[in-house]
Amino acid sequence: MGRVIVVGGGVIGLSCASALLRAGHRVTVLESSPELDAASWGNAGHIASEQVEPLASFSSLRSAWRRRFAAGGALDLPLRAAPAWAPFAIEFLAASRPSRFRAGKHALRSLLAQAFPAWQRAPWAADGLVKADGHIVAWESARTAAAGKAALALADTGTARFEEAAPEDLRRLAALTGIDIAGAVRFTGTGQVADLDRLADALERDVMRHGGGIVRERGSVLVQHGRAIVPRHEADLVLVTAGVASKPLVESVGHRAPLIAERGYHIRAAASGWPADMPPIVFEDRSMIVTRYADTVQAASFVELNVPDAPPDPRKWQRLEAHVAALGLPLHGPFTRWMGARPTLPDYLPAIGRSRRATNLLYAFGHQHLGLTLAPLTAELVTALASDSEPDLDLAPFDLERFGGKGGRA
Fold first, then answer.
1. Environment class of 128 (CB within 10 Å of its CB; exposed 0-12, middle 13-18, buried 19+)
2. DSSP letters along 361-379, please?
3. CB-CB contact of 289 with 326 (8 Å)
4. Hey, how many other C-beta atoms are within 10 angstroms of the C-beta on 312?
């Protein structure tokens, strides 16, 4: 077993580091931020095994106009960021063709079928860190409830299942909201991380306990020398798990990674009045998911295609606060505000594999909304690749070569 440098200390990177250490590798994680500010640590906490259908689809294209931010929806393509999202949008269109969508759905289904079992196998995910209580989807009008349920009936939800919310679920929803809920369904086969701070702490402690290192530093870490990658730190293998920052790293060795920063926003408040055992609730009409963590409740939303370091848009936090007030939820300021960038590729499939352009390069990034969901499984797959074993899943659909690169394949 060799020494592995993991570039990126989010949930994917730390999960991979833990698995690699347990397999006998020597591992150092390089994380550029001194704080837990990656998208990993601000997500909805939802283990989304139901999200089998890629967002790159004709269905997404048909609904895009009514979902735009200017019309009260969650989708925003800021004009000033058009140079970043326009090329992505062109490739998104191509990935939405029926044949590409079907292939993408098949690929995601293979991953998501093993996502929750991988969480249950993760040795660091003990002591109530993961809940298997499913989630609730609710609608505010009879029209949207009927349409939403009809759409779900036709959708592929993989191993997850749903049924009409039980009377007890409806009673609890009514107790939380100041409006009438016209309809709701309860999913099973999905789950939740109980607290993201506990998750980060559990992963970092597990890495350190098994002899790994976590180095927080900024700056370039990779240089190509012939057909190998030479990091500043001694290593036999380099694993890139740096989210949106993965793009320049893998493109420096000839890959092409058309990532976009798909930015999401959340607000948090003290959990007073919110039951600790309430599963995540999706208020579908507002494209908002509300999650109870240890001592806080979080409301999250928005798909903003932008450059990673653009200033946050305060209107989105304001709209979240307005949604909370309109629903009559027991959440009161002052709110903590957060914005993070999901790393998203145009076909909404992650990039997981071993480079054919640099002999010692592995990569695992571009998990879009599924980074938390797929972290333990991705770690198992990467560990197989690092050990020259055959992964349990076909990784061909997730190979970066699907996007081509400079000079053809190495």
1. exposed
2. EEEEE-BGGGHHHHHHHHH
3. no
4. 15
Using CA atoms, how far apart are residues 56 and 301, in angstroms rounded to an integer? 18
Residue 192 in contact with residue 46, Cβ under 8 Å? Answer: yes
**Does the reported pTM lie above 0.85?**
yes
Beta bridge partners of 305: 262
Cis link prior to 123 (omega < 30° from 0)?
no
Sign of torsion over alpha carbons 123, 125, 131, 136: negative
Residue in 6, 42, 13, 7 with CA at minimum distance from that of residue 27: 6
The Cα–Cα gap between 344 and 303 comes to: 11
Q: CA 331 → CA 61, 74, 274, 296, distances in Å? A: 34, 21, 8, 9
Which pLDDT tens digit goes with each residue over 134-182? 999 999 999 999 999 999 999 999 999 999 999 999 999 999 998 999 9
- Dist CA 200 CA 11 (whole Å): 7
